[in-house]
Amino acid sequence: MSTGLVAASEYIPKREALVVKVDASDYLIDYYLHRKTYAPDTNPAHDEKLKELITCFAIHLSARTGQETHAWTVHLVGETPYSLFVTGNTGLIDDKGIAQGFIVGHILTDNIRHTDVNSIHAQFTSRGSSFKSMVRCDSDNIPKMVEQFYAQSEQYPLRIQLSDTSDTAIGLVALPEFDEDWIRTVSIEDAASSPAIERSPMRTVHFAFSCDCSPDKLLPFFRSMSSEALEDLYGNDSELQISCPRCGKQFAISRSMIAEN
Predict the structure, then answer these.
(1) Is 100's pLDDT higher than 80?
(2) CB burial of residue 100 (10 Å; 0-12, 13-18, 19+)
(3) What number of CA atoms fall less than 13 Å from residue 128's CA on the CB side?
(4) DSSP per-residue string spanning 44-88
(5) Is the pLDDT of residue 261 over 70?
(6) pTM assigned to the model
(7) Parallel, antiparallel, or unpaired: how do β-strands 5-12 and 17-23 relate?
(8) Closest CA to 230 of 191, 256, 196, 212
């Protein structure tokens, strides 16, 4: 059974920081199978960016309270325009600090406008309220973009280190009343593993690569359209191929499905 992307966080007292250790190796099996089925022609450079964004996003979610749904859209400068989208939720955190959440992402290439600035557009929903923010970034390096997003939008430092040899990463997240000098200068490896630094386990979240998209979720939208609008949309076709913007899964919406009650 897949354990998904595992993000284990520990609290560092006195320094008021959170260290998050991410292992995406199991998660990436499901990720690759999905991309192979629904996006086999993905540009390898774009794919690498999305994987990095998912890892950074897991660190972000792990530092938030439970059951918040977040989404980021990342626009990157390039000759061929594309954007990255990722969304997820930690799920309910039990008494033992274990949670079962999800993270899903997609590379958007259709109808993407050229941009002259790298940026992160974020939104999240908590307790029925929605919040949005946008940060312009100086780099197209995903970890650096997320660090800059945190500095400007969250107004707390975040440091991220991705492994060059494995599907792991470490995040060091500042908490209120953090030790600024220590956060900015400590070795991330020491923060995560040095016996000289006190750490207390907080939570472990297992993020699955999953999306609840389905034709049934889209049918109310199509049924709300006028017969003239549907005719313009379908033309001579009996069905439309729809791609989920969250995960890229494709499915058909036929005229007969819309007519059914």
Answers:
(1) yes
(2) middle
(3) 0
(4) HHHHHHHHHHHHHHHHHHHTSPTT-EEEEEEEE--SS-EEEEEEE
(5) no
(6) 0.91
(7) antiparallel
(8) 256
